[in-house]
Amino acid sequence: MLRIRLFKNLAFLLVVGALVFLPLADGANAKANTDTGKDQGNPEDIKTYSKGDKGGWWWYEKEVVKPEPREKEKKLVEKEVPKHRIPNMDDYIVDKLWNMHPDDFQALLMDFQKEAVREPTEENVRDYYVMQDIARRKALAFTHVASYVMQKYPRLNVASAAPLNAPGRNATVQARHEDTVNVLRDNKDDFALLYFTAQGCKYCDAQNSILVYFVQRTGWNVKEIDVQGQPNLAARFNIQITPSIILIYRNSGDFFPVSAGVMDVATLELNLARGIQHLKGEMTPEQYGIYEHQKGGIFDPKSILEREH
Q1: Which range marks the domain in which residue 223 is found?
Q2: Do 170 and 275 have their domain in common?
Q3: 244 has which bridge partners?
Q4: CB distance 161 to 169 below 8 Å
Q5: Could you identify which of 123, 128, 162, 297 might form a hypothetical disulfide with 116, taking C-beta atoms 3.0 to 4.6 angstroms apart as the criterion?
Q6: Angle of CA points 275, 279, 285, to nearest 5°
Q7: What pLDDT does residue 38 have?
Q8: Whether 289 contacts 300, CB under 8 Å
Q9: Residue in 221, 256, 220, 257 with CA at minimum distance from that of residue 242
């Protein structure tokens, strides 16, 4: 009986203690929630991952972790636009300007010009023309030295081989003509001319009269070939235009085109002379525009190489 009574007393004390301390605990929790701004009893504040009845952690789905937002990108600092250089003549002396590198001088000259245009004051315009005066004097100095060098070193002077005065020009024309005539005269037996024509070709009629005059002047033989009558021969020499003239070297069988279309006598003779020298190996493509009397001179591109050996 005593044991039963003790159990009843203990139960009574537990009930009384619960009634006394539960309100105090609720008040403390409420205060703590108030301080933290969170309601611990609100299910929405509990971290869960559920997408309904079939989804979330309980269905072995991993929560997609969203990347934390990056910090705002710093604004690009706008570079200051470099101001245009405003030149000042007080910063320069004539000796410095005179010996300045041409690229630097030109840039400085343009700065003075732009400043004079931007603000056309008397001082700015005067400074610009001071620069122009130095440039003019420098160019004049170069011209004078160039004249001195041309006179002292004649091999550098083109005028020595191509004079500009009338008597010199006449002598140049005569020398060129004699070179051409000599080449044609000395090689007419070693070369042949094929003249390709076509029926109804009006340009061929014009070339015929020119070739008659050429034969009378040089004594060369010209063989006329009708491309329609001998198409295989025309194809062999790749004749695409009529009239066409082909030069053939009898010793080697090599050939070289002379003309395609109507050509005057002077040009025809010049092309023949150059073609002959080329087929004989007496003229390289680099020398193709020079005459015999100009070989080894200032107009011969390769003469400077031969002079060094």
Answers
A1: 166-291
A2: yes
A3: 196, 260
A4: no
A5: 128
A6: 70
A7: 44
A8: no
A9: 257
What confidence tens digit (pLDDT) does each residue in 9-41 have? 555 555 545 544 444 444 445 444 444 444 444
Residue 98 belongs to a domain: yes
Specify whether 286 is located in the same domain as 201. Answer: yes
pLDDT, tens digit, 9 for 90 and up, residues 145-180: 999 999 999 889 998 888 889 999 999 999 999 999
* Same domain for 216 and 128: no
Q: Look over the chain and give the mean of its residue pLDDT values, rounded to a whole number.
A: 82
- The first and second tokens of residue 251, run together, are 């010793």
Can you tell me the distance from the alpha carbon of 249 to that of 253, in angstroms, rounded to the nearest whole number? 5
- Tell whether 113 and 183 lie within a shared domain: no
pLDDT, residue 78, reads 46
Q: Which of 188, 176, 193 is nearest to 256 (CA)?
A: 193
In a shared domain, residues 178 and 241: yes
- pLDDT at 280 (0 to 100): 94
In the beta sheet, which residues pair with residue 191?
249
Q: Is residue 179 part of a domain?
A: yes
Is residue 274 domain-resident? yes
Amino acid type, 306: E
Instruction: Give all strands of the β-sheet with 255-260 in edge-to-edge order.
Output: 222-226, 191-197, 244-249, 255-260
DSSP string, 102-160: HHHHHHHHHHHHHHHHHS--HHHHHHHHHHHHHHHHHHHHHHHHHHHHHHH-GGG-GGG
For residues 283 and 239, state if they share a domain.
yes
Which residue stretches of the chain have pLDDT < 70? 1-83, 307-309
pTM flag (> 0.70) = no
How far apart are alpha carbons 299 and 309 in whole angstroms? 19
269 and 209 in a common domain: yes
Q: Is the separation of the CB atoms in 121 and 155 below 8 Å?
A: no
* Residue type for position 38: K
Structure tokens belonging to residue 192:
């042949």
